[in-house]
Amino acid sequence: MPGENNDGTERDAPIRQLPQTTRLSTVGVLRTVLRRIRRDPVLAVPFLAVGGLIALVDWLRTHDPIPATASEALSQSVSLQYSVLPHGVARTARHVDALIDLKTPYFLWAVGLELVVPLAVGTAGWLTIAWALEIQPRLRALGRYLIVLISIISIPRVLGVSSINLDSFLLGLALLAVLLFVFVRLFLFPAFLVSGCGFMPALRQSRRRSRGDGMTIGGLIFVLGLAYWGLATVPIVGAFLSTALVAPVHAVALGVLTSTETGAVGANPSE
Predict the structure, then answer these.
(1) Which residues is 4 bridged to in the sheet?
(2) pLDDT for res 93
(3) 65 and 99 in contact (C-beta within 8 Å)?
(4) Rounded Cα–Cα distance for residues 223 and 154 (Å)
């Protein structure tokens, strides 16, 4: 667990570095994650519960009088629904302008409904990653984790930007390359937050620890992003499947790649 420097600031979490000679593979990491979940099914429980909650919220949005729309992600032919933090993809969405001029009871109901999902998703991610790291979950880490999650969710909604669509193929490839580079460097950020790092130390650790494994992490991002989207497109139960099946894999992968147990994960025995 992290300690404190002489000036009272937290030190980086003491998660030991992976052996530098180890070569990881996307398939190897995913196999290790699935073995971990089979060996310890409790790792899947938090997001299993949250998947049911998101499905319920989808149903409530479609049946209450406050306007809601189908998620834009599901209207696209193919979409990578990857986020830095493990999550689920809801089949409905409610935009900020739907809350304007509502009477107080309806406003409180709508805001409460929109807040309960990120709080539940954040708590599930915090717990699952901590269990995967085999460390004691800490409330301070939960607070930081929720701040990041709510920022990721709320900023695009406030700006009215939920997805990026480009008509130019070359421009799209260039943007994809930039985003993939950024996401690879941020991939381990949630695990270091959960381990007790502050925001900036977690960013530095994630950037440092992702070096040399960019192809593996990039592969995980593509697999997870497509799986989030693909399962979410299933009628009626898509939100549940996306959350209950993919989010635990995402969370445990963070723990596997960050923990000291990953020295041989996906290693190529021929090297």
Answers:
(1) 10
(2) 86
(3) no
(4) 25
CA distance 258 to 271: 22
**pLDDT < 50 stretches in the chain:** 1-2, 6-9, 12-21, 260-271
In the numeric block, which tokens belong to residue 42? 């409790």
Q: Are 147 and 132 in contact (CB under 8 A)?
A: no
Return the CA Rg of the chain.
19
* Alpha carbons 88 and 243: distance in angstroms, whole number: 4
Burial of residue 59 (number of CB atoms within 10 Å: 0-12, 13-18, 19+): middle
Q: How far apart are the first and last CA of the chain?
A: 33
Q: pLDDT per residue over 8-31, tens digit each?
A: 445 544 444 444 445 678 999 999
Q: Count Cβ neighbours within 10 Å for each residue of 216-246 and write b for 16 or more, e otherwise.
A: bbbbbbebbbbbbbbbbbeeeebbbbbbbbb
Helices 45-63 and 247-258: angle between axes, nearest 10 degrees? 150
Percent helix, percent strand, percent coil in the chain, to nearest 5: 65, 0, 30
Tokens of 89: 């993809």
Q: Please, are residues 95 and 156 in contact by the beta-carbon 8 Å criterion?
A: no
- Tally: H helices and E strands in the chain: 10, 2
Q: How far apart are CA 60 and CA 92, in angstroms?
A: 10
- Show the tokens assigned to 77: 């032919």
Q: Tell me the whole-structure pTM to 2 decimals.
A: 0.83
Phi then psi for residue 185, to 5 deg, are -70, -25
Residues found in the chain? 271
